Amino acid sequence: MKKEILQMLRGAGEDYISGQVLCEKLGVSRQAIWKNITQLKEAGYQIESQPKKGYRLVESADKLVGADIESRLKADCLCRKVECLEQVDSTNTRAKQLAELGEPEGTLVVAEEQTAGKGRRGRGWASEPGIGIWMSLILRPRLKPQQAASVTLVAAMAVAKGIRECCELETGIKWPNDVVIHGKKVCGILTETSSEPDYIHYAVPGIGINANTKSFPEELADRATSIYLETGRKTDRNALIAAVMNAFTDYYRKYLETGDLSLLLEEYDQMLVNKDQEVLVLYGMAEEADPEKMQKGIARGITSSGALLVDTDEGMKEIV
Ligand code: BTN
């Protein structure tokens, strides 16, 4: 019921909404409304109550609240349910456990803190409590496993769009799936899948967004940024999560329509910060790449399978 109450309070904007109207619309008693409003207040929402006028939402909580996220999802949003945790080892690990137990597509796991956040290539992902967005979505795409790699690119597009819409901040994508602002990383994505040779059981894109981080350790400061550092404002994390899920829904459906990125190519390329920029093509893992084989070139955009097209300085067209 908190989801509906929040929807109605937000819909009323600066105005009050009477207890009577809430009761009638939700078909519950005044006491039930009062109880839920009290719980919302306890969770950190500033809700003004005035006799004869009713209730007014003054400020949302600076806390992740499943009902708040759900109250902002579009009616056709792919995300149907939010599991909101205070602390977890990794939201990816939790989402995979749920998926193994048969949880349907569309369940989102979010946590205030991860104690063992996972990054790509076996690295960790710092996930301090209360300031970031650490979340993982359960997907069950009817695609071949090799097509699933593009889920990460789809998620990057959704994050870029969500930040743009919710925080009025221009973002770009550094191929394949880092979301960047002014060249610094604001979001990382790690997709984990469980599949058989020609069947995907589930895919779990895990998204980490530096939302309200106030500073980074020295060794990261020139590569990482946060929405707070870029805008000077605190982001409403529930609103941003919902904006990302709403955007993801549209992109993901287009991706499923063809099973590749062909309907998203143009938009992805517009977000691509590497487009028409010089890139260095490395063969093998970056740290161990053979310098003899490095090639300079200009990135031209992506293919429908998510690979980067590069015109090399030696006049070749490479698909990376
Ligand atoms: C990267 O290395 O760029 C990917 C980082 C992905 C971090 C997110 S935070 C939510 C989800 N849970 C994890 O353990 N990792 C991902």
UniProtKB/TrEMBL annotation:
DNA-binding region(s), chain positions: 19-38
Enzyme class label: ligase
Keywords noted in UniProt: ATP-binding, Biotin, DNA-binding, Ligase, Nucleotide-binding, Repressor, Transcription, Transcription regulation
UniProt EC number: 6.3.4.15
Binding site for biotin: 90-92, 114, 185
A single GO molecular function term of this UniProt record: biotin--[biotin carboxyl-carrier protein] ligase activity
PROSITE patterns recorded: BPL_LPL_CATALYTIC
Catalytic activity of the protein: biotin + L-lysyl-[protein] + ATP = N(6)-biotinyl-L-lysyl-[protein] + AMP + diphosphate + H(+)
Pfam families, sorted: BPL_C (PF02237), BPL_LplA_LipB (PF03099), HTH_11 (PF08279)
InterPro entries (UniProt xref): aa-tRNA-synth_II/BPL/LPL, Bifunct_BirA, Biotin_CoA_COase_ligase, BPL_C, BPL_LPL_catalytic, HTH_11, Transcriptional_repressor_C, WH-like_DNA-bd_sf
Domain (BPL/LPL catalytic): residue spans on this chain: 73-256
Membrane recorded as keyword: no
Keyword Nucleotide-binding (UniProt): yes
Similarity comment: family membership: Belongs to the biotin--protein ligase family.
Function: Acts both as a biotin--[acetyl-CoA-carboxylase] ligase and a repressor.
Protein name: Bifunctional ligase/repressor BirA
